[in-house]
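G., the chain you wanted modeled:
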Amino acid sequence: MSTPPADEVGCPFCEIVHRRSPAHTFYEDDEVMAFLDLFPYTRGHALVVPKRHVDRLTDLPEEEYREFLRGLANVCRRMDRLSQHYNVALNQGSRAGQVVFHLHVHVIPRYGEENPFATRPRARLDDVDARALLGVLGTA
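Predicted structure as tokens:
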């Protein structure tokens, strides 16, 4: 296996994209991958990432916007299976809440709960629930 580019070293999402780290992936095409967040705000909270390592949306080449948006829309259609109400969120920069510096969009289903973004501990996704969610989200 070749050595990853310097900007990918240590990036947890690149590790997932290159299958060096496990993830509960339910959508993938040539340019985009979506997987369940390990510390979800709500049940089914997913992350949509480009396979190319870029820190921010503004780093993604414009000619790749269409494919990224197509993948995001596909994930949103799957999210409708859990709830037709969801947030689509993009944090850019540490002061905006970006923790992993690989472009990613959060798709967070809403079920009528209070603000899921309030500061509170988030429980880790368990494998049993992840498998159940993949059963709903993972089919075309």
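Helices lie at 12-17, 65-79, 127-137.

Shout if anything looks off.
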